[in-house]
Amino acid sequence: MSSVPATSSVPDRRPGGGRPTRVLLADDHTLVRRGVRLILDGEPDLSVVAEAGDGAEAVARARDTDVDLAVLDIAMPRMTGLQAARELSRRLPDLRILILTMYDNEQYFFEALKAGACGYVLKSVADRDLVEACRAAMRDEPFIYPGAETALVRTYLERMRRGEALPVRTVTDREEEVLKLVAEGHTTKEIAELLYISAKTVESHRANLLQKLGLRDRLELTRYAIRAGLIEP
User: Fold this and answer.
1) Terminal alpha carbon distance of the chain
2) What domains lie within the chain, and their CATH numbers?
3) H or E element: which one contains 99?
4) Would the keyword Phosphoprotein turn up in this protein's UniProt record (predicted)?
5) What average pLDDT does the segment 140-156 reach?
6) Please, what is the Cα angle at 143 between 228 and 129, to 5 degrees?
7) pTM of whole model > 0.70?
8) CB-facing half-sphere around the CA of 203: CA atoms within 13 A
């Protein structure tokens, strides 16, 4: 009687393994999602199995769908890609995360790494870089878009020469959540309901933001949120 080799019941998620990498794609623009999906689904080792139109939906979909990799835009309603990345890193530490963005911005790059992302890809060259970034993520390797390393090293050396420190976050995660929702036009009551906190706590966070950022009112908070990439103009 011939013996049959035992096979593992655990799916192989490595590049070239037993099944394609299952991808969650989050972007608030349907046409962008459609284009990115065409790129990824055109590869035999990648498959988009879930989509989301904002960061909060991305977190929910990641929790109720078996995904290996999340590809997140930065500027999305309700919760940004960076906020979603922080939340996903806490809740699903084995999930790989890539940031796909239009922003060629040093601050966002460092924030993405601190949020738990293992790669940063520009939308302008997604057709060239995204597939390799996905594969690198699944190999546990970081991916930085070509040209970024030189620019980042140059910026770092210039700051060192001037005696400046690397950029640090001015606001906390919760303050950033409140700031984004304020800038999107939500009322104090709506923000309290969305974040499951009291209206008094929302007002406290808003007061702290105004003081920290040296701003005067909702309009200036909104302008700051646009500059910070939390919302689109």
Assistant:
1) 71
2) 21-147 (3.40.50.2300), 173-227 (1.10.10.10)
3) strand 96-101
4) yes
5) 67
6) 90
7) no
8) 4
